Amino acid sequence: MDFKDYYKTLGVTKSATDKELKAAFRKLARKLHPDVNPGDKASEAKFKEVNEAYEVLGDSEKRKKYDELGANWRAYEQAGAAGGPGGPFGGGWNVNYGGGGGGARTVSPEEFEQMFGGGGGGGSFSDFFQTFFSGGGAAGASGRASRTRGPRLGRDVEEEIELSLEDAFHGTTQRLSISHGGEPKQVDVRIPSGVGDGSRVRIAGEGEPGTGGAKGGDLYLRIRLAPHPIYERKGKDLYVRAPIALTTAVLGGEADVVTIGGKSLRLKIPAGTQQGQVFRLKGHGMPTVNKPDDGGDLYAKADVALPKDLTATQKEHFQALAKSGL
Length: 326
What we know:
Mean pLDDT: 79
Number of domains: 3
Number of strands: 13
CATH class of the largest domain: Mainly Alpha
């Protein structure tokens, strides 16, 4: 039996933290999931390997035993048996599948059977896993241990959703189609105003269903804001160009600025305003989630419009200004 390098499978070092392990697993699982790669046997095999690796490393007790096993693997090979009374690990590898910790976020053997079928040549997990981490010690002639089956919490699921800046400003309700065990379901999700790029919205109980009567996981929507043709968002603040006539920039006056909420504001322009000068409109930026009185500001950047076509009279005036040394 070959030793499984679970750290290499997840692309992390042996000193990786629980957070780093979780991030590596979720990234690979999203990339390799069968729903993303239908019919791709190579991705299916890698998905199984990643899931198996995190089932062990994501659980503190299993990870400790795995690290001990790695340090003593040669002794195991020489002994020829892992779980028998005379083996070097006799009685010490009784780890029930489905225990607590991070392993609850992987796919169970039963779920694997539903996804890939039960006769896939050797089962959902490797002989290595089933020998050391799937039951009561030695696996017998087939190299497999019986699995402890019981209630298992459903996995959390994360999906990406794109929003316009206007929807992020006002808040919106999105209707999503969710599949639970192959059964489609429509869910209306309220997204609060003020969400930003990368924000997550939790929908309780709409993740993977649990087994054996256990609760289902949660669905997390990760927000991605679509680029806006007019406004640029930086944190809670918004930035916009404010077209200003040349005469207004020189002599002073007013200019109109429209907020993301559709409100028209009159911006006072002082005489001698320069191209690119920035004006702050307090409180007209993005709201803060659950804090309506803690919004950002709107910054209007002066965009002085130069005339393209001048009449003869206008040219004379500019020539006079040029002669005056302006």
